[in-house]
Amino acid sequence: MQSFVSTSTASVQTAPVSSGRLLSLDFFRGLTVAAMITVNNPGDWGHIYAPLEHAAWHGWTPTDLIFPFFLFIVGVSITFALAGAKADGQNVVGKIVKRSVTLFLLGLFLNFFPKFDISTVRLLGVLQRIALVYLACSLLFLKTSPRQQLYLLAGLLVGYWVLMSFVPVPGVGYANLEPETNMAAWLDRTILTPAHVYKPAKVWDPEGLLSTLPAIGTGLLGLLAGTLLRSQRPSAEKVAWLFTWGCLATLGGLIWNGFFPINKALWTSSFVLLAGGLAMLGLALSYWLIDVMRYRKGVLPFVAFGVNAITVFFLSGLIPRIMNLIHVTRPDGTELGLKEYLYRGFIAPHFSDPINASLAGALTFVMIWFGILWWMYRKNVIIKV
User: Fold this and answer.
1) How far apart are the first and last CA of the chain?
2) Does residue 3 lie within any of the structural domains?
3) 321: Cβ contacts below 8 Å, ≥ 6 apart
């Protein structure tokens, strides 16, 4: 069965990785995770190419698309993982909840590490949002029809737009989309309190409570796309419909941007449609080339990332933090964390442009992980929740 989750805290499965899997989905997931690791681990945070940074507020960059692509893939994967259980009437709610809790706790652990200070720990984050979207979309897949999922998607996106654009913010007096005074920010600092939100933002969280609702909408788009891929329609028809839906969603997002701006931090409804539409186009192209036309050149390296996606995401966040706890003294007497020491000593000196050096540091990190994941792939090792 297809599963999007692969973590470092659960059992190790040694079944053939190609068994029952949609190769294009593994490829698309792996490409997304490799991009996520690249933007999360530059050699130097002070020198980054603009497309590898998030938009400051309204607007978008390629980096802003990475996380919604992953949530879209979560939705697609659910249709493959749970289709049999839904058809047979199996009760898998307990397993779904267990996976969700495990993912949430892994994200919380990353926020705790290394200080483990409960008074200031950030409660939400990327893995926590994945957990919540996975939980909601899995239960909706089991309990609702595709038509009902479409209606719910429309309701979430329109309802979020109305709430953010027209409902006065308590203590502010008017509806707005400014960073610290919008409705989502007010809810984060009211419920989570400023002590438990994303520290650079101080009084709101980019993976906050209210914006999780439209993020579930991103997962619902994945459910609808996955249902189409699992249907008995001819492959060419599936691709045509995915391209059609993708174009319409992207166009809808660009139109909605005129009065509800595309904004990744707020996960606006226009952002859901834009990112979801582009994800559909990417999946359609991958499916057509890899699973229909059987084009496999250069595919397997990203498949290796895709079949152990959560594993590499979790460890790629944890290991640099561990490395930074190890201090190394340079010949000039300055003390650096091990990761920065290796970057300054073995990568940066080979580049005259610090931006290129920073990118080289990120790509080196990705290639090291590729070596590990390729070994795991060749040994048919998939680590799952």
Assistant:
1) 14
2) no
3) 110, 113, 114
- 3-state SS, residue 368: helix
| Residues pairing with 12 in the sheet | 383
Residue pLDDT, tens place only, 70-84: 999 999 999 999 999
CA distance 334 to 341: 10
DSSP 181-206: TSHHHHHIIIII-GGGS-TTTSS--T
CA nearest to 305, candidates 78, 10, 29: 29
User: What's phi and psi for 328, nearest 5 deg?
Assistant: -125, 135
pLDDT in tens, 112-151: 999 899 999 999 999 999 999 999 999 999 999 999 999 9
CB within 8 Å of 43: residues ≥ 6 apart: 343, 347, 348, 357, 358, 359, 360, 361, 362, 364
Q: Are 129 and 212 in contact (CB under 8 A)?
A: yes
d(CA 137, CA 100): 11
Pairwise CA distance, residues 325 & 67, whole Å: 28
Domain count, the chain: 1
Residue 118 lies in a domain: yes
Domain coverage including residue 149 = 12-383
**Tokens read off for 161:** 């737009």
The number of CA neighbours under 13 Å toward the Cβ of 327 is 4
Query: Which residues are paired to 332 by β-bridges?
Result: none
